[in-house]
Write a structure and sequence with these properties.
Layout lengths: L5 E2 L5 E2 L7 H9 L8 H14 L4 H14 L5 H4 L4 H8 L8 H17 L1 H8 L19 H13 L6 H10 L11 H4 L10
Antiparallel strand pairs: 1-2
Helix pairs in contact: 2-3, 2-6, 2-9, 8-9
Length: about 200
């Protein structure tokens, strides 16, 4: 009996959510759970996870390149300099999620990240979960003690629109917790060569 993984088009067992769209398949195989350790990379993932709140992740994946263009490649130093004119520009950009609270939080958070510098990455990385056994399909969770602690610590530093659920999604995305199912091929092997990006 397997832990809930399903065979993909190439016969490899994957977490079932990865099979619902080509973008998910690529993201699951090559990004989700893979380590991200740079300040800019972590700021990007944190921002995208915050924009995803209340929406489907596929919406964010399909708009990710637009987000990167709109938010200066997620360079926190550049985004920290955004002003009210930039907020209005972003509110008029149909290529991203146009939510004023999330846009203003992304700019505020860039200022905090820019001020913290490398300490921002260190703050996130110290919440890594190393001893959790591989999950099964029944082990689904939206938060953890570590994500609650991370969200609380980031809030203390002034980060906005980032609660325990968003923190847990970030932890999954950047490899601070490995939530690939026990029998998912990603747990045991390197990803297959990247196909065409969609």
């Amino acid at each position: 009996m397997n832990g809930g993984a399903l065979a993909g088009p190439d016969g490899l067992l994957r977490c079932p959510w990865a099979l619902s769209a080509p973008e998910y398949l690529d993201y699951h195989d090559h990004e989700w759970g893979r380590p991200v350790r740079t300040v800019q990379g972590l700021y990007e993932r944190m921002t995208l996870e915050a924009f995803q709140s209340g929406l489907s992740w596929i919406t964010i994946l399909r708009k990710r390149e637009n987000f990167r263009e709109a938010f200066a490649g997620f360079d926190p130093e550049q985004v920290a300099r955004f002003d009210e004119a930039d907020v209005e520009r972003l509110m008029g950009d149909a290529g991203i999620v146009r939510n004023r609270a999330k846009i203003e939080a992304a700019i505020n958070n860039a200022r905090v990240v820019n001020e913290l510098g490398e300490e921002f990455a260190e703050l996130l990385l110290r919440h890594q979960v190393l001893d959790r056994p591989p999950p099964t399909a029944e082990d689904w969770r939206a938060t953890s003690p570590e994500s609650v602690a991370m969200a609380k610590e980031l809030k203390r530093h002034g980060i906005r629109f980032f609660g325990p659920t968003t923190a847990y999604a970030l932890m999954q995305a950047v490899g601070l917790v490995d939530d690939h199912l026990a029998d998912c091929f990603v747990r045991a092997a390197e990803p297959p060569p990247a196909g065409p990006r969609t």
